[in-house]
Amino acid sequence: MNATTDLQTEPLPTEIQPIIQTFNLKKAYRTGFWMNRKVSSLKQCSLQVMPGETFGLLGPNGAGKTTLLKTLLGIAKPTSGRGFVLGKPLGDRKVKQKIGYLPENPYFYDHLTGWEFLEFIAGLFQIPAKVQRRRIPELLDLVKLDRSAAKKKQMRKYSKGMLQRVGMAQALINDPELVFLDEPMSGLDPLGRYQIREIILSLKQQGKTVFFNSHVLSDVEIICDRIAILAQGELICEGTMEQLLGRTSEQYQVKGQGGSQQILQDWVADLDYQAGQWHGRLKGQPDDFLRSLSAMDAKLLNMDLARPSLEDFFIQQLRQRDIQVSR
């Protein structure tokens, strides 16, 4: 079966239809001076994203994350395989009215103000002026961008954080069912990252589906319902945090107050002791530790079974496949 025919096949019937569905998706580019060398950016990529999910795609630089995202958006055509977005074959024009997209390095008409730019994007979606007058202020408030600055200041004078907020607003201007975000936290300070994270969580509460790439694994761990790791063009694992990281490990995270910092160091790895409050990872047996706390007049506030962090899991998956990583 050739690629063209393959891409037009109807999606497989399921009780709840995936909002994104791909089957053995492959993308190869020609490169070299004579364009006589093929490089595979995606290799047999199959995944599903269900309605209302926040789905995180992780991977090192050059893994093929942006290629996959652009293929789902219809910006790039797959070499082979098939896929569906909102039940339609990849590249279907009608679907684009129902999706939002924030690229990693967006280009804006920087002679416009933020407000003018959002009006321009709203016009492309043929959103009536009456709706625009309500929708644009709502979005500016959502992304925490001052309305006065959005109206009066040209975007060439915006900071990176302000531009990212305008980008997020334009991705939501059409009230999309599905939102694609390519590295939405890239280059932002901790406050900016927090605000983008809160926006994504608010979209989740509205029942929207969010598909995004990110290198900020701590944010992904908080936000996402499911994740997938892409490396060297291949999906090497996919699932919920619980499925991938497990519910617990045999280690405990402990938190308490009082006691001797010197003695606690014998019991607690990565001990953080400040103003009589402490936390870290238990090295010994819980029963013995509790007896030692009583002896040193310390109080245990919390003890929970721990699991590996997403960062540790991510690094482990890459190293198992001999992919060079640095920390």
How would the global form be characterised?
Answer: globular
* Count of β-strands: 14
CATH superfamily of the largest domain: P-loop containing nucleotide triphosphate hydrolases
Q: Unreliable segments (pLDDT under 50, ≥5 consecutive)?
A: 1-8
What is the CATH class name of the largest domain?
Alpha Beta
What oligomeric arrangement do these chains adopt? single chain
CATH fold title of the largest domain: Rossmann fold
Instruction: Output the helix-strand order.
Output: HEEEHEEEHHHHEHEHEEHEHEEHEH
Helix and strand content put the structural class at alpha/beta
Mean pLDDT: 88
Rg calculated over all Cα atoms: 24 Å
Largest sheet: 6 strands, mixed
**How are strands sequenced across the largest beta sheet?**
6-7-8-3-9-10
CATH architecture of the largest domain: 3-Layer(aba) Sandwich
Pick out its properties.
alpha/beta, Rossmann fold, 327 residues, 2 domains, six-stranded mixed beta sheet, 12 helices, globular, disordered N terminus, four-stranded antiparallel beta sheet
